[in-house]
Amino acid sequence: MPVVLAFSGGLDTSFCVPFLTETLNDNVVTVTVDTGGLSKEDAAKLEEKALALGASHHYTIDGRRHLYDNVLSYLIKGNVLKGDVYPLCVGPERVTQAIKIAEIADLLGATAIAHGSTGAGNDQIRFDVALQLLAPGKGILAPIRDHGLSRSHTTAYLKERGFAVPVKTTVYSINKGLWGTTVGGRETHSPDQALPEEAFTMTKSIADAPDQGAQVEIGFENGLPISVDGAAAAGVEIIELLNTIGGLHGVGRGVHVGDTILGIKGRVGFEAPAALTLIAAHHELEKIVLTKWQQHLKKQAAELYGMLLHEGQYFDPVMRDIEALLDASQHRVTGSVTVRFLKGNLQILGCRSDYSMFNQSVATYGEQNLMWTADDARGFAKIAKTQAALALKASNQTAVH
Question: pTM (2 decimals)?
Answer without folding.
Answer: 0.92
